Amino acid sequence: MSLTDEHIPTRDEILTDIWQRLSDSADQAGKAWGVPVLSNQFRGEPTARSVVLRAVDSEQRKLFAFTDARSPKVAQLREHSAAIWTFYDPVGRIQLIAHTEIEVKSVGADVDHFWNSSRPESLHCYLGEDAPGTKVDTPSVVPTMSIQLHDLAGGRENFAVLEATIKELDWLALRRSGNLRARFHWTGEDWDFSWLVP
Ligand SMILES: Cc1cc2nc3c(=O)[nH]c(=O)nc-3n(C[C@H](O)[C@H](O)[C@H](O)COP(=O)(O)O)c2cc1C
Q1: Which residues, judged by CB distance below 6 Å to any ligand atom, belong to the binding site of ligand 1?
Q2: SS3 letters for 125-167?
Q3: Whose CA is closest to atom 31 on ligand 1?
Q4: Where are the domains of the chain?
Q5: pLDDT digit string (tens) for the chain, length 198 residues
Q6: CA 83 → CA 2, 95, 96, 168, 172, distances in Å?
């Protein structure tokens, strides 16, 4: 099924397409939905940044990203867990806005698994001595060449997983035949579906 043709997709077709696109994009920074913008609010101020979508779990309605445990967003999300992930595919012309609650995890079997199964070049950024966002006199560069997983052990304590549980999805497809927008709200048992004016 193409969401760009004139067929009006059903609720289930849209949901299947959403999870397919998310899982195709996970750990694929080159894919359109691979680098969402993650936004939250902290003490009344909006804040947002790009992150790499690392994994998804459609059964548990989860999205995962990795970050430095010392980064400002970790302290913010530990205090206020509500966060929005915005995805846009400029070729498929589909936007997805996922309203979530984030749990920051830095210990446990899941976090160890993500750490151990990651490519070394994705983990070298956790070796820095200072927290992300620290002011410095000169730019510091951590060499990325030839880093092996065992060289990275010191970075493990700085590694954190953002585990987001989706509460609501706002889906928008731009189509020549007429834009479509739909909302999926998780009731606790199932997705409550509504078409919305785009
Ligand atoms: C393409 C791209 C991918 C990024 N991926 C991540 C990521 O997966 N995790 C992360 O913490 N920061 C990532 N960043 C950096 C963040 O956008 C941000 O600059 C940094 O995390 C500091 O955010 P904070 O000060 O809000 O904590 C990425 C930046 C770009 C440009």
Answers
A1: 35, 47, 49-52, 65-68, 71-73, 132-133
A2: HHHCCCCCCCCCCCCCCCCCCCCCHHHHHHHHHHEEEEEEEEE
A3: 50
A4: 11-129+139-196
A5: 566 678 999 999 999 999 999 999 999 989 999 999 999 999 999 999 999 999 999 999 999 999 999 999 999 999 999 999 999 999 999 999 999 999 999 999 999 999 999 988 888 889 888 899 999 998 876 666 566 666 788 899 999 999 999 999 999 999 999 999 999 999 999 999 999 999
A6: 30, 16, 14, 11, 19
pTM to 2 decimal places: 0.94
Q: How many CB atoms lie within 10 A of CB 66?
A: 21
Atom of ligand 1 nearest to the CA of 67: 11
pLDDT digits (tens, 9 = 90+) for 74-94: 999 999 999 999 999 999 999
Domain 11-129+139-196: give its CATH superfamily: Electron Transport, Fmn-binding Protein; Chain A (2.30.110.10)
Q: Which of 33, 35, 49, 84 to mutate to test the pocket of ligand 1 (most atoms within 8 A of CB)?
A: 49
